[in-house]
Design a protein that fits this description.
alpha/beta; Elongation Factor Tu (Ef-tu), domain 3; 6-stranded antiparallel β-sheet; 20% helix; MRET; iron; PDR/VanB family oxidoreductase; 2Fe-2S; oxidoreductase
Length: 319
Amino acid sequence: MTTVSVRVKRISQEACDIKSFELVSTTGAPLPSFTPGSHIDVHLGSGLIRQYSLCNGPDDTDRYLIAVKKEAASRGGSQAMHERIKEGSVITIGTPRNNFLLEPSAKHYLLLAGGIGVTPVISMARHLLAAGASFELQYFTRSIQHTAFHELLSGPEFNGRVKFHYALEPEGLRAYLRKLLWHRPEGADLYLCGPRPFMDLVESTAAATWPPEAVHLEYFAADPLSLAGPQESFQVKLARSGGTYSIPAGTPIIEVLAEHGVHIETSCEQGVCGTCLTGVLDGIPDHRDVFLTDAEKKSCDKMMPCVSRAKSPLLVLDL
């Protein structure tokens, strides 16, 4: 994966527990181009890599802008960003990748964001605004103090395009979503990002009237229930490099292979980013990721070995 060295030009407190980081080239060379919905890998040392969505608008050609929420249950990434990274720090990032592309043929875009899930959505809104496209952004947070980029989204250019929702009770949120999603405008697409329970509620509410191909999601983490599901031991055979290995219950495929000198490039290790995507030549994967679509999972020809397992006694991987 291609990497770039960048300098942290500015850090801003965007909301309670949320900081934005403006990144610029260390050499003065242009940063690689990106599309709305893209994310970058941020390398934080000691093998720690985390993915953060770009918040940029189309006019941002000389910087990247990301925002990071400091999580109480941080696995190290958000804590490092908030406590170790300073203005002037030089860090390594991956070039932008996009698993959350805007469908260019849509006639209208309904953008829904919960909390820090606004980060890829705000980039979409800025690009759609510049393009003169029809869109609206519905942004759900705990309070104004927890609303990132509130000043920007409250500006005159977004007048009539953005609606804020603060501290909705569960029943109030369900009622509002039913009213919002009961009818799909002709040619409209729905884009959604936020905490898992919020996304699950939106997706299940939209399912009554929005076809699956019109609903686009980006998760920040895999489903904890899926990751904690029942596990059995199985065998993995490597078709190209040779070797058959036993994968014990509770041990990821990538960990066992690494112990035998077979290293698969990884990043999130949660089945979110797609870095470790691996071909499956035989056997039935037990998919536990949120990267592959339902159709891709049914094809059984690829998997995420960082979290997924096997339903068959043997998996033959294209490695």
